[in-house]
């Protein structure tokens, strides 16, 4: 945790009501940090289904491999998340530490080890002493409560400067269900592998396959649309747990993600994931500006996404934004380097509502002071029209500042 | 040009002898800068052949399009390079400005416009007033001399902090030929599109197709192996001109790039291109460390290159190097995100000669102080063994410092 809270931190936090079937507790297991909570235990009622998407890294952490192997194998009865040690690049010891953690949690929760999901974030390459969870997880299970969301979000922080959570209520059929999510992340990787983790909980009764489709689609429109520095953690994890408790209140069992009864839920889930993903960007290391990049007119949505990401990941675009410089030349550069079909002479670029370039040239009508005013805002929109087709994408990023360098060039302590 | 010279600048410069058939002159055309030269004119004797490789940007500058269209069409009699204006994203005006420049240069050199090659570097999106070259290029042609290499390298600088040139002498058959090269670049794109430009001149008699193969291969082992910030200019240009004047001294005419008589020349060309490319990295914006990244054991050379570039472009790796932190966790992260086949549990990582990780774990034998000493050096080597195959690659990069942000976050002036 940093002493200095991001200037883009939330002004207020939502009230997080409980999600039936979910209880939470946090503890100090002494993994690495002193004097702060570093472990989150989530108890899940019988029948809970889990789905997840994970880092595409070819060198994933041991917990990521564990979760992948156990998804869809049975239900989910517990989630254990620790901060301070990522248990990544820890060889056979890493796999053993995950198995030991699952074993301790399973005894605490009264379930099978493969019903336990695990995520770790923190230093890489250090063996994780899983025996520190002995006793701690049992104690957590005993005192877990339905309303410890703020504490849960804080327990999983590493270099985050503020806790991140969001909530929605939405109807499935005639029954209101809850969606609560927590997340951490600040830079795709921060000093010693910060990682993005997010966990969403609902009491909706949704079958595992449908749940998996929902989270995969949702990720694609949220966490896969944000970037801080283009780096990819070994440990990125986004999971969705459905306890099914709302069935007791009459919610229909959903077995197909495309079920029309799920329309509002799908939208609420996507909204919540976007909100969490945006909080990660707003806590981006050294961030002083939040940037929304819209690309339209590409030959396909995928093409638009790749162009948008090329802009969002360009250090030259990001430093220009940090300098409040409407340097559209760098946008042209980033469009060009994306490798996607683009016609220089059809490009149009807007900062906010001001069109600065059109038809492959500087817009002769634009007024520098108006653009300068846009660039001084904390939230900045960049819109690029490729002029070739109907493909669209929206991604979010932050600027690149000296503070990012200061955070990441520090010696490991 | 920056006031502050890169700490990685050369301690001394080579003596540049002439290349028969090549004359150079520089001038102040007043394109953008005041009180410094901003145009280079190179006169080339009749029979000169030209070859080149250019940016892969989908939004290339007008001069890049001009050069591509005219390569192999006839010979090359003149090269005109201006700094201060990139003539990129300038629409139809841009193409007209290039044609006008070629026309003026052709009159000055007594050749056809399509025998004139052109490169521009500087601000993007501003129309280039090519009429400023009127008179200037004629004057340059009249006073061009064989030994103005230092002045030539200076005239094409933008944000460069030092001029870049290199020279080689090499035998073809029984005849010694010369290779002289100049380059500019500092950040793939610097404020207002700095761009990488490099021009190499030889008196060897080499046919155009062979020349094209030579420069394409050479680029692949030099300029395509360096990165400062992963951004790609609209204007990157590398050209090789062969005057053929050495034929008068008995050098054999070469029509095949694979001709065994060319073995030493090929090696000398590659060496020279690597030297020029490394000077660009050593003048990388804000650079304080020069980093050589070797990847071995990948499944192919291409795979090794992609892994090496993922490491070289990672902001987290680069900031760690700036902080003199042997943060091998970030190397693992970068290997993982490259998307290439890799087995976490076979990875080995060295900083200098110190192995810090092996078999998917921290090397228990490594001594922190020895690694710290390696990281304090100005030139740092990172070696990654993937452990899967025989694929190898070497790339060069620099660190990422607060100075990079300061340079690039400045307001456009």
From TrEMBL, chains A, B:
It catalyses: L-glutamate + acetyl-CoA = N-acetyl-L-glutamate + CoA + H(+); N(2)-acetyl-L-ornithine + L-glutamate = N-acetyl-L-glutamate + L-ornithine. The record marks 194-195 as: Cleavage. The record marks 121-122 as: Involved in the stabilization of negative charge on the oxyanion by the formation of the oxyanion hole. Keywords: Acyltransferase, Amino-acid biosynthesis, Arginine biosynthesis, Autocatalytic cleavage, Cytoplasm, Multifunctional enzyme, Transferase. InterPro entries: Arg_biosynth_ArgJ (IPR002813), ArgJ-like_dom_sf (IPR016117), ArgJ_beta_C (IPR042195). The keyword Cytoplasm applies. Substrate binds at residues 158, 184, 195, 285, 408, 413. The active site is at 195 (nucleophile). CDD domains: OAT. Pathway: Amino-acid biosynthesis; L-arginine biosynthesis; L-ornithine and N-acetyl-L-glutamate from L-glutamate and N(2)-acetyl-L-ornithine (cyclic): step 1/1; Amino-acid biosynthesis; L-arginine biosynthesis; N(2)-acetyl-L-ornithine from L-glutamate: step 1/4. Its EC number is 2.3.1.35, 2.3.1.1. It is found in: Cytoplasm. Belongs to the ArgJ family. Heterotetramer of two alpha and two beta chains. Catalyzes two activities which are involved in the cyclic version of arginine biosynthesis: the synthesis of N-acetylglutamate from glutamate and acetyl-CoA as the acetyl donor, and of ornithine by transacetylation between N(2)-acetylornithine and glutamate. HAMAP family: ArgJ (MF_01106). This is Arginine biosynthesis bifunctional protein ArgJ. It comes from Saliniramus fredricksonii. The lineage of its organism: Bacteria, Pseudomonadati, Pseudomonadota, Alphaproteobacteria, Hyphomicrobiales.
């Amino acid at each position: 945790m940093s002493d200095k809270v991001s200037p883009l931190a939330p002004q207020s936090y939502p009230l997080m009501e409980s999600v039936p079937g979910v209880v939470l507790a946090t503890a100090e297991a002494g993994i690495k940090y002193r004097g702060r909570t570093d472990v989150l235990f989530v108890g899940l009622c019988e029948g809970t289904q889990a789905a997840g998407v994970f880092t595409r890294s070819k060198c994933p952490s041991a917990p990521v491999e564990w979760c992948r192997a156990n998804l869809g194998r049975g239900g989910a009865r517990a989630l254990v998340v620790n901060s301070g040690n990522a248990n990544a690049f820890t060889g056979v010891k890493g796999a053993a530490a995950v198995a030991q953690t699952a074993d301790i949690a399973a005894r605490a929760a009264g379930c099978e080890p493969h019903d336990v999901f695990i995520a770790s974030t923190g230093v890489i390459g250090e063996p994780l002493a899983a025996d520190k969870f002995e006793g701690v997880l049992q104690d957590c299970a005993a005192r877990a409560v339905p309303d410890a969301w703020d504490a849960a979000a804080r327990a999983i922080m590493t270099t985050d400067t503020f806790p991140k959570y969001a909530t929605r209520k939405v109807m499935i059929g005639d029954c209101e269900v809850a969606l609560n999510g927590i997340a951490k992340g600040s830079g795709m990787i921060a000093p010693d592998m910060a990682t993005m983790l997010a966990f969403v909980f609902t009491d909706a009764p949704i079958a595992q396959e449908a749940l998996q489709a929902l989270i995969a689609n949702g990720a694609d429109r949220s966490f896969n649309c944000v970037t801080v520095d283009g780096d990819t953690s070994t440990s990125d994890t986004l999971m969705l747990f459905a306890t099914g408790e709302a069935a007791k209140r009459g919610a229909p069992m959903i077995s197909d993600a495309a079920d029309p009864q799920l329309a509002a839920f799908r939208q609420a889930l996507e909204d919540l994931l976007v909100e969490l993903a945006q909080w990660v960007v707003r806590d981006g290391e050294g961030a002083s500006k939040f940037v929304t990049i819209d690309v339209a007119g590409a030959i396909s949505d995928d093409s638009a996404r790749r162009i948008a990401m090329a802009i969002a990941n360009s250090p030259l675009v990001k430093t220009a934004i940090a300098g409040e410089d409407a340097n559209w030349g760098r946008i042209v550069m980033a469009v060009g380097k994306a490798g996607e079909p683009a016609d220089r002479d059809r490009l149009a670029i807007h900062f906010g509502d001001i069109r600065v370039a059109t038809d492959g040239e500087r817009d002769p009508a634009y007024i520098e002071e108006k653009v300068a005013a846009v660039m001084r805002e904390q939230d900045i929109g960049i819109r690029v029209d490729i002029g070739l087709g109907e493909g669209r994408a929206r991604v979010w990023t932050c600027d690149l500042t000296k503070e990012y360098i200061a955070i990441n060039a520090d010696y490991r302590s």
